[in-house]
Amino acid sequence: AVMWLSGLHIPSAYLTALVQTTCRIKKWPLDKSTLFTIVTKHTSSEGLEHLESGCYVTGLYLEGASWNHEKAALRPQDPKVLVVDLPIMQVIPMEASKLKLHNTFLTPVYVTQARKNAMGVGLVFEAYLATSEHESHWTLQGCALCLNIDT
Questions:
Q1: SS3 content of the chain, % helix, strand, coil (to 5)
Q2: Distance from C-alpha of 33 to C-alpha of 23, rounded to nearest angstrom
Q3: What is the pLDDT of residues 26-38, one digit of tens each?
Q4: pTM score
Q5: How many separate helices (H) and strands (E) can be counted in the chain?
């Protein structure tokens, strides 16, 4: 029920296939469809079932911010904590015209903390994370999600 996104060689291909499959089933135009994300309160896959449309993904690390588990939203980093694990995220294909983006920050998801890999590829997709701050705050903090971290 939960896909370990970091374990895929080309994670963007999996997400593209997810959108294409949903578009075929629901007869949506592919060029007017996109991904929407919701961070769940789950930290393990127990109790999660396969979704009819979309999927659950794990293996994401948050850099430049921290995660408030009670409010399910971004919050400032704790001192001396550079990277935190993000709870399981739900990825939902939907029509772009139906997106409601109030109090969200469009967060880039990169392959590594260097924000690119050896082949120069870096950006996988952009995730919507809930926030009460203006998006410029998180941009200046360098807020991003990474699939792999340097440990």
A1: 20, 35, 45
A2: 8
A3: 898 988 899 999 9
A4: 0.87
A5: 2, 11
